[in-house]
Amino acid sequence: MFKPEQETTVFSDEGDDTLGGRLSMARDSAGVSLATLASQLGVSEETMLAWESDRAEPNPSALVKMSALFGVSPIWLMTGAGDGPGEDSDERALDAVRNELSRLRAAHQEIGQLIEATTRQIERLDHQIRLRNVSKDVAH
Length: 140
Prior knowledge:
By secondary structure, this protein is mainly alpha-helical. The protein is built from 6 helices and no strands.
């Protein structure tokens, strides 16, 4: 079984009635990042995303390995019947939401910095263009 990582995402019940949805839900419930699981299975993150979005299906040996890593039955992963991941406690759900909010705040701050840098770049370019136009007018 994996140890939960810092980056836990909040998962919903939507889509968990498909193989991909159950894979995503089990991974989220275990607190495992996509990159970590892909590395553990020896596949690319793109392959994992394809599995979780039902664009492709893992081979049986990968399903069995994932079921062992997540502590769920292979039958549950394939069909939804049997032993799935345990219910998250309220504390774990709260921590997941707090982590998500923290990531959103960091992304918001980074976007704000990018907007400011782009605004300054536009102002510099605009100033250069105006100076060039003024010097052309003076030359004529």
